[in-house]
Design brief:
The protein is α/β, with parallel strands linked by helices. It has 10 helices and 15 strands.
Length: about 300
Amino acid sequence: MRGVVPRRQILIVTTRDYARAVRRQVPRLPAGNILIEPMGRNTAPCLAMAALEIARRRPDATFVSLPADHGIADPQEFRAVVREALAWAERESATVTIGVRPQGPETGYGYIRVGARLGGRAWRARAFVEKPALAKARRFVASGEYLWNAGIFTWRASVALDLMDRYLPEVVIPLRGAMRVPAARRGRALARAYARVPSVSIDYGVVEKVPRVIVVEGEFGWSDIGSWTALADLPRIRGRKAPVVPVDATGYEVFGTQRLVALVGIKDLIVVDTHDAVLICHRERAQDVRRVVEEIERRGLTRYL
């Protein structure tokens, strides 16, 4: 966001578990710009808290909400797309999202079907579609009518809060009361509020119900890093890697920092080696890791999660 938003106007919402790490990673961000959730409740409560804080500081502000775990290969192009989305949100007082031209039939992403062209990179949104099966994803890409849903939204703070009042009052009303409490007591007030609010995404709770949504299309090397395959496809992966010894092995990806990993006669596998667990899966089944999590929970082995 450098060059788009001044540092003093960048907010980060995180939970208590990560607040200290966030402060270490962005030491030049004002301490008051790190908003701490008492617990995770998906993206709607998170964005309600942020919108309330933005409206308190400047009621006429327009803001962009960005998931923090995405990969952006071309920051310059990304900033240009964000600027255009902010301009549409401010000019039209509309909900504006960013869609990414699909690079293939990805089943791990949601899709947006576009309608009429509005000018520039902007389209009218016709429909939001949850993560599709492979055959449907192929049809989406072939049609040229669908973009990947990047989960990035721009809107006026007043518009966002009006929509939450209309579609998610059970989220925004308790949080509005908590955010009015003096800072010294706000943590406890937020904890009480979060115990009451449902866990719901801003997409499902608000955006998919809004009758008029604008989509700004962009191509900036985007990935939401939703699977090990997506992580392997990033241009750069920082951090120390353990040695890998392949013998007649192709198409593999290994993630580990401690032990040597030897591969013999394998093809198209992903191996993740951590201090207390090892994951091995085929590249085409990387999205099925959620089934492993479900099975671990069913067996009562949650200490490994």
